[in-house]
User: Fold this.
Amino acid sequence: MSAPSGQPTSLRTDAQDYGETYYHSYGGVDEPYEWESPHWRAFFQMVAERIRAVTNPSSVLDVGCAKGLLVQAFCEQDVDAYGIDVSEHAIKTAHPDVASRLSVGSAEEIAGSWDLVTCIEVLEHLAPVDADRAIDAMCGASDRVLISSTPGHFDDPTHVNVREPAAWAASFAERGFFRRTDVDFAFMAPWTVLFERADLTQRDLVCRYERYAHPMRVEVLEKRAALRDAQRELMESSDLREHSALRELSDLQSQLDEAAATNLDLRHRLLTSRDHAIGAEAEAAQWRLRYEQTAAALHTAYSSKTWRVGDAIVRPARKLLKRQR
Assistant:
């Protein structure tokens, strides 16, 4: 049935959206999404061990199991675990040790009764109406449902139904399932919650959630106060550093100005000395020219016939005068 004219069509994903390409870089990790990958094997072994320690389930159905890594980790913990997933590719490429425990199936159609149902990062992939049907199916199959559905990661095109954790909690509350406030599954993700069927009075419900919320509110207020004090100290420290830096900058500027003045004075002296040197060099050149002119004149005179005749006449007289002395 098509949507009425002008109404948006509800987004849906199907099996072909979760083929080989989807799992090529699953979770933003370079290692292949396989049981043989050390990263993924260690992660799911840790998750299965922690879940078993908290819930101690006798049987588990993992809805949206992908390649069954969590199912395989549960089996290592001696938990009777099975998985269903809409992706035929994921089921066909599962590890042989767990392949017989996996099957292609929809989250909206769950068979059997289970001590625990897990649904890890799946609901955000379902259209709203399909997600509600899946919640109905899970609540009908078990009294305990472990849900993890990201409230963000909008860049994934298959995330067609991202909701806040409060919205999922409200959906489970409508079906008589409430958060177990005495356990914490943040080791998986901050938004992971264990919902459990419970016949609670309003008083019990309010008491449970207040007991859960009050310590966190106190912690938040204390951390806000600590953050405020740290910010004030940082600002004061920053002001002191800024004042010290300005003072150092002023001192450096003074030293720079002094150095510039000294440099200017030295430059003036250098230019003056250069002018004096140029003047002295010009004066020396003039004296050198006069000397050369005088030497040339003397040489010309000594070489002339008049000088030789005169010298021949005067020379005997000079000798006689010298003897008389």
